[in-house]
Recover the amino acids of this structure.
């Protein structure tokens, strides 16, 4: 199995949408994602069209429009997204559960290569079908906290501890943009990160 550039960008974009949503910004513009991930906008728009058609994201037109997740993060598994974009997870088609096709081997039942590739396929699918977008977003936010790095998409200066949960707490969910703006631009609007003072929000 090899993830294509399209598949990689789709997964990275979904993670970005999940992070932004957890921090109170449920909708992002393609230009923001393209800038953060250093991707061509036109290519990213094509990917979002595919994700929207599959029901993973939804869009809203207008000056303050953009893309947001169309379903809860717990319902988005990495394995199904990869299959939707790049096809089967199996390294060879004769061990695929979703797109089986016979290979050139004259005796599949006793093919040692096929037995090995079954194990490879099962190991890959077990990991990718077990992890949801919520899992990866949570891990990413935890690492931002550990490394004292300001998460992306905030567009303003706030104390990291006021955004991310402490150990054992769950990130706040369903926070509206208005609530997030009040939270992010309150009395902690000028903080320092890694010893560098941050000025007013741009």
């Amino acid at each position: 199995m090899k993830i294509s550039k399209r598949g990689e960008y789709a997964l990275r974009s979904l993670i970005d949408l999940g992070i932004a949503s957890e921090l109170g910004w449920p909708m992002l513009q393609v230009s923001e994602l393209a800038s953060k991930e250093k991707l061509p906008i036109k290519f990213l728009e094509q990917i979002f069209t595919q994700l929207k058609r599959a029901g993973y994201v939804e869009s809203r037109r207008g000056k303050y429009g953009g893309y947001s997740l169309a379903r809860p993060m717990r319902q988005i598994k990495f394995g199904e997204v990869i299959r939707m974009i790049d096809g089967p997870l199996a390294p060879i088609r004769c061990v695929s559960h979703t797109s089986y096709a016979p290979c050139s081997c004259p005796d599949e039942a006793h093919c040692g290569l096929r037995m090995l590739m079954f194990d490879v396929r099962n190991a890959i699918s077990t990991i990718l079908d077990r992890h949801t977008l919520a899992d990866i977003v949570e891990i990413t936010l935890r690492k931002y906290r550990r490394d004292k790095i300001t998460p992306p998409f905030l567009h303003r200066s706030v104390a990291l501890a006021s955004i991310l949960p402490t150990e054992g707490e769950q990130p706040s969910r369903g926070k509206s943009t208005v609530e997030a703006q009040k939270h992010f631009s309150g009395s902690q609007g000028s903080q320092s990160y890694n010893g560098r003072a941050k000025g007013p929000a741009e």
Summary: The radius of gyration is 20 Å. The helical segments are 5-22, 30-37, 41-53, 78-86, 112-130, 133-146, 160-163, 177-184.
